[in-house]
Fold this sequence. Notes:
elongated; single chain; 22 strands; FAD/NAD(P)-binding domain; Helicase, Ruva Protein, domain 3; 2 domains; five-stranded parallel beta sheet; 410 residues
Amino acid sequence: MEQKGNELKIVVLGGGAAGFFAAVNAASIHKNVKVVLLEKSNKLLSKVRVSGGGRCNVTHACFDNNVLVKNYPRGERELKSAFSRFSVKNTIEWFESRGVNLKVGADGRMFPISDNSESIIACLLEEAKKYGVEIKMGTEVIRIEKLDIGFNLYLREGNKLETNKLIIATGGSPKEESYNWLKQLGHTIEKPVPSLFTFNIPNEEITKLMGLSVSNVKVKIVGTKLEQEGPFLITHWGFSGPAILKLSAWGARTLNELNYDFQLAINWLPIYTQNEFKEKLLNNKKELGNKLVINSKPTEIPARLWGYFLNKVQISESSRWADLSNAKLSLLLNCLQQDVYTVKGKTTFKEEFVTCGGINLNEVDFKTMQSKIVPNLFFAGEVLDIDGITGGFNFQNAWTTAWIAANAVC
């Protein structure tokens, strides 16, 4: 697969969101340039397909870039300038101008109105076809050789492809050795570790409440300053939901250093101070003395969870409020606002994994996404040391950096 003649060529590595967006935009902007997209697997746009439970969480309805960048544990400063070039508003306009209208969910996440990721995939495939992007699947680059102008790409099957310009959008990888071929070009790799994962709590009674959600809790890694607040989900293996996923993102490196073995403190009622909730418990004892505790919870938490807490502090279902000693009330208070569990391990959904780590951001010019070390080499998406919390932020990084690279590549 040798390049023929002096044809100007852009090669994009990676058939995910960033790679596809870079390829179709490069082809539409630079119409006299051949654009080739290489994907090492036999699947295209895998994360796009599974994102949002198959609905594709395209972006997030956050139109203030100063607020938007706060959703990125890594890359906040660099993305602020990047979003000034291609923002959430630009993403919406890009897809809607191609017939894919988006809608906003209650939590700000944005989806195609079809609620089907295939709408996004079909749009990108149609753009690739319209502008003549050549797509080669099952094609893995194992080494890149710098030339005076351009690159030789050595493929696993033994062939070689020459290109003038190269956009790398290969995504994140949990294995540091996966970046060796980029190290060989002179780039520094920030150690990759998982981000956006759930917590495993083996042999804990609370997992029997699997499927139960709480609208707002505060979670904290004991012994650190790491804490987050938000919706929370109990699963059959442990804890999940936005609060946990955000905590895993902001604490990605710390939790990796702890080998995912740590204490998690949960405040199930962050809307109250300890004194405020203590008063509520004392008022219940005073005003609801003859009522069963199990049937008269003092706050809006799920009934099954209330029952779990009563059992945990050994308050029987036949207990009345008047029966509770101050010591029992203190135990209940601590259980609801300083509940502690031992986390041992994590669960990462392989199709949707996000990596903390990648190309050092100081080595990339975010006005163009071009390498500061290797001319004519560009980066887009999660191969960079950028990652966002859940909610469409990682896709927005992909669209933005890919669009900038596509514009600047020629």
